[in-house]
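Name: GP1 homolog, RAB6A GEF complex partner 1
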Amino acid sequence: MIEVVASLSRGPVFLAGETLECLITFTNPLSHRSTSASSEMLAWASAQIHCQFHASENRVMLPSETPKQDVQAENETVLVPNRGERGQCFLATPPKILFCDLRLDPGESKSYSYRETVPVEGPPSFRGQSVKYVYKLTIGCQRVNSPIKLLRVPFRVLVVHGVEDTQFHHDEAVAPSNPFLEEEEGTKKDSRLVELATEMLMMATSRRSQHLFNITNARGKVGKFCIFKTIYRIGEDIVGTFDFSEGDIPCLQFSVSLQSEEHVLEKYQRRPNQPASLTAHARHQESCLHTASTHFCLPIPLSATPGFSTDIVALRWRLHFEFVTAGEPMEPPTVPENQSEIITWTGAEQINVDTFSWDLPIKVLPTNPVLASYVAQFSGANSIMI
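Structure predicted for GP1 homolog, RAB6A GEF complex partner 1:
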């Protein structure tokens, strides 16, 4: 038996256009139970990146296509990276051969480095209710006269628009950040790509300007809402404030939810006027009777998918507000002057209330892939025995 271990060197999250590097190690382990260990032989091994697309049959109606034959079923020597996977292969890089005719003695191991640029034309990683875009690195290995064995390493892709059009000058990428540390040319370019993407995201999300909204219903003014920006990166906190001091209608309770909307484009909808799929990521609820001002803070999870759009689906973000207001004015509690005894104020047993909601669209952008790697659901390393 040969053990194959694949490990992503920089973590399981990458920017589109960045170079993925994976160290693949083949080992013929020593057997402690048997003294008759022998050499092991592999005919070949190759690696390939592919994006797997899957659509929900209940929500998405894809155009019918002629079913493709599984090449792997006809020829056991051909690598089909998505064999046995659900859905269809959305895009794939050309396969790269790691070796041919590898012989390993007992206890011997050999490592190979696989490098490939993550395609810029693909969508970001996304696991929604209507569609899924899943990226994987697949390593195929085969013994002589044996079927191909596949080792898959899933990873996450973030897309920052505009970075793929940037041309790096030679003198712009020659100086490493540490003068005592030599870097390969590809590493320099990837480092510069991540730095440029981070700068673009910082510039887009650092602009602050006060946005004021009047909260009103059919009876009158409830209060004011203030937020300082509407563009955020995943991992940031959304902070907003409420001012109910000048409201004519008492607000008894409010809630704010951070939601993503998954819209299937009209021509691919399974049913006419199909509603968007909503996913709540954070929620704040507060009782605010006789409250002059208050605030909320909602974190955007690093594991969330930033907004994007493809030919089939669009992902958008919003803040969803719900307000519960009193049907009539309510006097605040008063304490008489020179009161010597303790007074307990008790709220009303019954209040006629009105409810209404409001949605505020916001933009959610990616972040530094290194930061997103800390909360990734993938380990970045997998192994099989063949």
